[in-house]
Amino acid sequence: PWIWECVQLEMKRRERYLEEHNITRFSQNTEANPFSSKIICGECNRAFARKGWRTPNGDRKVWQCSERYKVKGVLGCGNRHIYDETLIEIYLMAWNGLLECREMLVPEWERKMQGVNLLERFRAMDFMEITKDARPIKELDIDLMLRTVDYIKMFEEGMVVTVFLDGTGIEWKN
Ligand SMILES: [Zn+2]
Q1: Spacing, Cα 45 to ligand 1 middle (Å)
Q2: CA 26 to CA 19: how far, in whole Å?
Protein backbone atom coordinates (compact mmCIF):
# COMPACT_ATOMS: atom_id res chain seq x y z
CA PRO A 1 0.00 0.00 0.00
CA TRP A 2 2.79 2.50 0.66
CA ILE A 3 4.12 2.12 -2.90
CA TRP A 4 0.65 2.90 -4.22
CA GLU A 5 0.70 6.05 -2.05
CA CYS A 6 4.14 6.94 -3.49
CA VAL A 7 2.81 6.65 -7.02
CA GLN A 8 -0.03 9.07 -6.19
CA LEU A 9 2.47 11.54 -4.71
CA GLU A 10 4.76 11.17 -7.72
CA MET A 11 1.87 11.80 -10.12
CA LYS A 12 1.00 14.97 -8.21
CA ARG A 13 4.62 16.05 -8.22
CA ARG A 14 4.80 15.66 -12.00
CA GLU A 15 1.56 17.54 -12.49
CA ARG A 16 2.89 20.44 -10.41
CA TYR A 17 6.16 20.33 -12.36
CA LEU A 18 4.37 20.65 -15.72
CA GLU A 19 2.25 23.48 -14.42
CA GLU A 20 5.16 25.36 -12.86
CA HIS A 21 7.20 25.30 -16.06
CA ASN A 22 4.32 25.66 -18.48
CA ILE A 23 4.95 22.31 -20.21
CA THR A 24 2.03 20.64 -21.99
CA ARG A 25 3.12 17.06 -21.35
CA PHE A 26 6.23 14.94 -20.80
CA SER A 27 7.90 13.54 -23.90
CA GLN A 28 7.29 9.87 -24.64
CA ASN A 29 10.47 9.70 -26.65
CA THR A 30 13.02 9.69 -23.84
CA GLU A 31 15.38 7.41 -25.76
CA ALA A 32 15.93 10.00 -28.52
CA ASN A 33 15.69 13.06 -26.30
CA PRO A 34 16.37 12.05 -22.70
CA PHE A 35 16.70 15.60 -21.31
CA SER A 36 13.36 16.68 -22.74
CA SER A 37 11.43 18.86 -20.22
CA LYS A 38 14.28 18.53 -17.68
CA ILE A 39 16.19 21.65 -18.69
CA ILE A 40 14.76 24.68 -16.93
CA CYS A 41 15.49 28.34 -17.56
CA GLY A 42 16.98 30.04 -14.48
CA GLU A 43 15.77 33.41 -15.75
CA CYS A 44 12.08 32.80 -16.55
CA ASN A 45 11.48 29.27 -15.12
CA ARG A 46 10.19 27.87 -18.43
CA ALA A 47 11.58 24.72 -20.06
CA PHE A 48 14.35 24.72 -22.66
CA ALA A 49 13.65 23.09 -26.03
CA ARG A 50 16.13 21.27 -28.28
CA LYS A 51 16.71 22.30 -31.87
CA GLY A 52 19.02 21.31 -34.70
CA TRP A 53 21.55 23.99 -35.74
CA ARG A 54 23.62 23.99 -38.89
CA THR A 55 27.11 25.22 -38.01
CA PRO A 56 30.44 25.27 -39.91
CA ASN A 57 31.33 22.19 -37.83
CA GLY A 58 28.26 20.28 -38.97
CA ASP A 59 24.79 19.87 -37.53
CA ARG A 60 24.60 20.29 -33.79
CA LYS A 61 21.86 19.96 -31.20
CA VAL A 62 21.33 23.05 -29.13
CA TRP A 63 19.02 23.94 -26.25
CA GLN A 64 17.27 27.28 -25.90
CA CYS A 65 14.64 28.71 -23.62
CA SER A 66 11.21 28.07 -25.14
CA GLU A 67 10.35 31.71 -24.37
CA ARG A 68 13.19 33.01 -26.52
CA TYR A 69 11.09 33.71 -29.60
CA LYS A 70 7.58 33.25 -28.36
CA VAL A 71 6.42 35.88 -30.82
CA LYS A 72 8.07 35.29 -34.18
CA GLY A 73 11.05 37.59 -34.72
CA VAL A 74 10.75 39.19 -31.27
CA LEU A 75 13.34 38.23 -28.66
CA GLY A 76 11.61 37.06 -25.49
CA CYS A 77 13.73 35.49 -22.76
CA GLY A 78 17.39 36.41 -23.36
CA ASN A 79 18.98 33.45 -21.59
CA ARG A 80 21.91 31.84 -23.44
CA HIS A 81 21.83 28.56 -25.35
CA ILE A 82 23.69 25.36 -24.55
CA TYR A 83 24.90 22.51 -26.74
CA ASP A 84 23.71 18.96 -26.14
CA GLU A 85 27.30 17.73 -25.57
CA THR A 86 27.90 20.37 -22.89
CA LEU A 87 24.71 19.38 -21.14
CA ILE A 88 25.77 15.72 -21.04
CA GLU A 89 29.17 16.73 -19.63
CA ILE A 90 27.51 18.80 -16.94
CA TYR A 91 25.24 15.92 -16.05
CA LEU A 92 28.16 13.44 -15.84
CA MET A 93 30.09 15.86 -13.63
CA ALA A 94 27.05 16.33 -11.37
CA TRP A 95 26.33 12.62 -10.96
CA ASN A 96 29.98 11.80 -10.30
CA GLY A 97 30.05 14.74 -7.87
CA LEU A 98 27.09 13.29 -6.01
CA LEU A 99 28.83 9.92 -5.78
CA GLU A 100 31.93 11.65 -4.42
CA CYS A 101 30.05 13.28 -1.57
CA ARG A 102 27.91 10.21 -0.85
CA GLU A 103 29.23 9.93 2.69
CA MET A 104 27.93 13.40 3.46
CA LEU A 105 24.53 12.60 1.94
CA VAL A 106 23.91 9.27 3.68
CA PRO A 107 22.87 10.79 7.06
CA GLU A 108 20.32 12.99 5.26
CA TRP A 109 18.93 9.99 3.36
CA GLU A 110 18.75 8.01 6.58
CA ARG A 111 16.81 10.84 8.20
CA LYS A 112 14.37 10.96 5.25
CA MET A 113 13.94 7.18 5.38
CA GLN A 114 12.43 7.67 8.84
CA GLY A 115 10.31 10.64 7.77
CA VAL A 116 6.58 10.92 7.21
CA ASN A 117 6.78 11.94 3.54
CA LEU A 118 6.52 8.59 1.72
CA LEU A 119 7.85 9.88 -1.58
CA GLU A 120 10.92 11.36 0.14
CA ARG A 121 11.34 8.07 1.94
CA PHE A 122 11.18 6.17 -1.33
CA ARG A 123 13.73 8.48 -3.03
CA ALA A 124 16.12 8.28 -0.09
CA MET A 125 16.00 4.47 -0.20
CA ASP A 126 16.46 4.50 -3.96
CA PHE A 127 19.48 6.84 -3.80
CA MET A 128 21.02 4.84 -1.00
CA GLU A 129 20.75 1.72 -3.16
CA ILE A 130 21.83 3.15 -6.55
CA THR A 131 24.88 4.91 -5.14
CA LYS A 132 26.10 1.98 -3.07
CA ASP A 133 29.47 0.84 -4.48
CA ALA A 134 28.71 2.86 -7.63
CA ARG A 135 31.64 3.91 -9.80
CA PRO A 136 31.94 7.24 -11.63
CA ILE A 137 30.36 7.13 -15.09
CA LYS A 138 31.95 8.30 -18.34
CA GLU A 139 28.92 8.05 -20.61
CA LEU A 140 25.30 9.03 -20.39
CA ASP A 141 23.21 6.22 -18.92
CA ILE A 142 19.68 7.27 -19.88
CA ASP A 143 17.84 5.02 -17.43
CA LEU A 144 20.02 6.13 -14.54
CA MET A 145 19.63 9.80 -15.51
CA LEU A 146 15.83 9.55 -15.76
CA ARG A 147 15.69 7.75 -12.43
CA THR A 148 17.78 10.33 -10.57
CA VAL A 149 17.56 13.80 -12.16
CA ASP A 150 14.73 16.15 -11.25
CA TYR A 151 15.85 19.05 -13.47
CA ILE A 152 18.88 20.99 -14.67
CA LYS A 153 18.64 24.77 -14.29
CA MET A 154 20.55 27.10 -16.60
CA PHE A 155 21.40 30.63 -15.54
CA GLU A 156 22.37 33.52 -17.78
CA GLU A 157 25.80 34.17 -16.19
CA GLY A 158 27.12 30.65 -16.81
CA MET A 159 25.95 28.83 -13.72
CA VAL A 160 24.18 25.48 -14.14
CA VAL A 161 22.61 23.58 -11.24
CA THR A 162 21.71 19.90 -11.53
CA VAL A 163 19.01 19.03 -9.01
CA PHE A 164 18.53 15.35 -8.21
CA LEU A 165 15.29 13.74 -7.08
CA ASP A 166 16.63 13.31 -3.53
CA GLY A 167 16.91 17.11 -3.36
CA THR A 168 20.71 17.37 -3.80
CA GLY A 169 21.83 20.20 -6.07
CA ILE A 170 25.25 20.22 -7.76
CA GLU A 171 26.56 23.49 -9.21
CA TRP A 172 28.67 23.93 -12.30
CA LYS A 173 30.16 27.24 -13.36
CA ASN A 174 31.43 28.05 -16.82
ZN1 LIG B 1 13.86 31.78 -20.18
Answers
A1: 6
A2: 11
